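Hi R.,

Here's the chain you asked about this morning:
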Amino acid sequence: MDAKGIAAKEVTPASRKLGKREAAELVKAAKKVIVAKGKKVQTFPGGKATQQLVDALLGPTGNLRAPTVRVGTTLLVGFDESSYADVLG
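And here is the predicted structure, written out as tokens:
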């Protein structure tokens, strides 16, 4: 984000554990959710926090995976360079 001159409006430290409830709230506020796990990238419609979608956002400890970035109405979870480039420009 620094390379693109983009500054975060809000930063939550990874030490603050966010679980299922917080993940569901993020999904409800999004129109599009992109989840990257390793080389696998999945795109989901936002608005409805299905069990499958919420589970995709959580890591093995049951906490929201990092990094998680909200850009407008798009939620990016995990890191995939191509997805970030598409969303951030």
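One quick note: Strands lie at 32-37, 40-45, 68-71, 74-77.

Cheers,
M.
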